[in-house]
Hints:
CATH class of the largest domain in chain A: Mainly Alpha
Order of helices and strands of chain A: EEEHHEHEHHEEEEHHHHHHHHH
Distance between the termini of chain A: 37 Å
CATH superfamily of the largest domain in chain A: Dehydroquinate synthase-like - alpha domain
Helix content of chain A: 40-55%
Oligomer: homodimer
Amino acid sequence: MNNFDFYNPVKILFGKGKISELNKQIPENAKILITYGGGSIKKNGVYDQVMSALRGFNVKEFGGIEPNPRYETLMKAVEIVRNDNIDFLLAVGGGSVLDGTKFIAAAAHYTGDDEWDILAKRARVDKAVSIGAVLTLAATGSEMNSGGVITKAATQEKLAFGSPLLFPKFSILDPETLYSLPKHQIANGVTDAFVHVIEQYVTYPVDSPVQDRFSEGILKTLIEEGPKVYNSETPDYNEYANMMWAATMALNGLIAAGVQSDWATHMIGHELTAFHGLDHAVTLAIVLPGLMKHLKEKRNVKLVQFAERVWDITDGDDNSKIDMAIAKTEEFFNSIDIKTRLGDHNIKQEDVDRIIQRFTDRRVPAIGMAGDVKTDDAKVILEDRL
Amino acid sequence: MNNFDFYNPVKILFGKGKISELNKQIPENAKILITYGGGSIKKNGVYDQVMSALRGFNVKEFGGIEPNPRYETLMKAVEIVRNDNIDFLLAVGGGSVLDGTKFIAAAAHYTGDDEWDILAKRARVDKAVSIGAVLTLAATGSEMNSGGVITKAATQEKLAFGSPLLFPKFSILDPETLYSLPKHQIANGVTDAFVHVIEQYVTYPVDSPVQDRFSEGILKTLIEEGPKVYNSETPDYNEYANMMWAATMALNGLIAAGVQSDWATHMIGHELTAFHGLDHAVTLAIVLPGLMKHLKEKRNVKLVQFAERVWDITDGDDNSKIDMAIAKTEEFFNSIDIKTRLGDHNIKQEDVDRIIQRFTDRRVPAIGMAGDVKTDDAKVILEDRL
């Protein structure tokens, strides 16, 4: 096992009716800015539950944070925070609203010249506005971690940032808030969480049985519960609850503690979103099978373990176990109507070339943290997915 | 899944050499009291590592905290904290030192008449001294939770307490500090951690696949790594590391989130320690097989799951699967030389009667939290273990 530090102070309030406990989580005299997305919270009752719980508090609101939240939009909220001396940000929404709110929290107190440096130069965050969250989508894990991903529309860049100051003070997870989600958002969320685990599990073995089994437990749960939720006509509380808790556990630092992480699938996927506007999860489902196939030999040990323990594949030699695991993974995405080929999304060789050119221009020694995906590898991986 | 709150702000620093980072975890101007046990840290080099990392700090020390730490001993440390205005307690040791230090932290600022009320009346802790820990034993999980168990020698009482104020600010876990442990302490630690998981897992099903798989992952790891560590002549770092991380994960609140917990095995075991001075872990290994056997029907679902998933028992009907799982559990304890019968420890029917009398006198509606162990059940369980 590798050495590690683990720290996660987010208080989780999980379960039906938990939004009503919101008022006990925020200082009474706080000046709150509620942040949200396209407005679904005003249709599904979540906004009303939040406002009811915050009766008597000083509350402003900022809506319109997009999926793949944009720097340009978020800077408008930063102005509000500065002008109105907001000291508590309450994100009500999914991962994009959470990520966007973390950026607002960091940028509002940023004293450098350009707030974009928080992403482009990973400028250090020395102070941040306190954040709380009411989660309405099970997907990114942002509710229990301190990072985010922001897109700059002007330059079609999508970059990550993070700071221990950006952990939410609390996150409220009520599975019932997910009942009104469009089905494709359920599918995206399950796919996103699944690939989060893979990025921390199908890497290189370091003799980490606890972490491996936690990862396998989350993956198996997503495989079982995801399609049940996706296909259900009447919501089953436990199915939603288990999917939601699995997604949170997928990216809160726990399964990454002491193991080799990767994130190459995400890095490549981000470019597909940046250039083509594809849903984040869809990009992951496109890239992952190609990456696994390309790294079949290098990541042999963990891929065989993934095949045997997650997909219960016992027959055949290692190579055929891996092939079957990759096929089953792609089938899993397809079973919840995620289209896993670039061609399905009208993305062609010249688009791949443009992405590869960007990686070449950036001259990073490797894409991701495992060291085994360089620009040439990304080319092979993407061309395999055409 | 049940509703739950989860909060665990303990920073974990895990791995070889991590004690050297101690100085970055404690405020520079802190008045530190180092607490420890029987003095093994002075023989195995841990004390020297700690003092070297704390060069330049204001440090006092308090040694002699016993296994099953005693109220009488700890109150002496409370006096030191009060007289010397200590504002940081650094526990260097195992679960007993950790638990004892939590009590010192709470009692030092207690304003009621009798500090024992923190245990006897579960009096609320409103203020506590900050705690950090250097763990030298993998067992109780106290390094990543906010509770403890203290014994009053005068009355032979052993009681639990806890408060969110008693989470350590940090805990340093260096598996190499375990290399010099006597073998029986390794066996005790593995047994203790194993039963911690069981208390949160073999209860009643609430449809919690993530939590169940995490529990199963910890149990399987303890079953694999425990005997390897116990029997090794030359220490293997990863075996120790995996055992240590499993023990921490066994009782940090994570696997308890959203499920039914029990703790009846602990409650009954505590009486065996209080009256007979048995090692804590040994009492658990005595009681658990009897408890499982007695609750075979009531806890049928989780016992079958335990048999199938943890012990890989696939043959036979449910009843025989459970019988085999109980037998394998007892064999596991015996394999690391834990003696699992009351008779092995010279405890007789009249001793059982005295324990039952105490439960009767206390008139608690049930022993543990699952509601299925009353005083009469404890009698059956203990008599089965004679």
